[in-house]
Specification:
The protein is mainly α. It contains two helices and no strands. It has one domain. Keywords: Membrane, Transmembrane, Transmembrane helix.
C-alpha cells in the first residue's frame, strides 16, 4: 500500500479514536457532575488531555501489534 495512503488512514483512525475517547470521558464527567452535584471549571481541558492520552496509547498499542 502506498505510504501516503497509509498515513492518511492512520490519521483518520487516530482522529476517530480521539473523538470516541472525548465522548466517553465527557459522559463519565457528566455522570460525576449529576451524581455529586459539583461542577468543575476545568473539565473541558481535562477531557481533552485525557482523550489525547488515551487515544495515543490505544494507537501505539495498535501499531505495536501490527505485523510487518
Amino acid at each position: 500500500m502506498d505510504v501516503i495512503m497509509l498515513n492518511i488512514l492512520f490519521f483518520l483512525l487516530y482522529a476517530l479514536l480521539f473523538i470516541i475517547c472525548i465522548g466517553i470521558i465527557h459522559f463519565i464527567f457528566t455522570i460525576l457532575e449529576v451524581t455529586k452535584g459539583v461542577e468543575g471549571p476545568g473539565y473541558g481541558v481535562l477531557t481533552g488531555i485525557l482523550a489525547g492520552i488515551s487515544s495515543s496509547l490505544i494507537m501505539m498499542l495498535i501499531i505495536h501489534n501490527m505485523p510487518i
